[in-house]
Amino acid sequence: MSKFYFVVRGVTFENRQATIAKINAGDKVRIMPEPSNPFDAQAHSVNVAFDGAVRHIGYVPKELVAQVAEFFDGEEFDGVIDKITGGFAKRDGTTASLGVVVMFEIPDDLAGDLSAGWQV
Which of 42, 44, 81, 82 is least crowded, fewest Cβ atoms below 10 Å from its Cβ? Predict the structure, then answer.
């Protein structure tokens, strides 16, 4: 299996920071096509199960979505949180936003040249 990593986009919108503050590296995520997204019909959302509900924490980066779609043919797929970033005190006294790095795996025979752009 080949491992691929990406930084989740859109983590500062719609109170997603509150959910991200409660999740951990190693938690599973579900990546789902979102064809009804009014801004981008190719969007793939990143979701976690938390407190008995599925919570949206952001999106696969737009520039990488076409490559993902090729392998998963419109289906949902799973990944895992590799790490949570940010959350530190900045010099101005504010706190840096939290970020999320997700890892997912593809069988080696399907991965081909996908590695470009997927490493963090």
Answer: 42
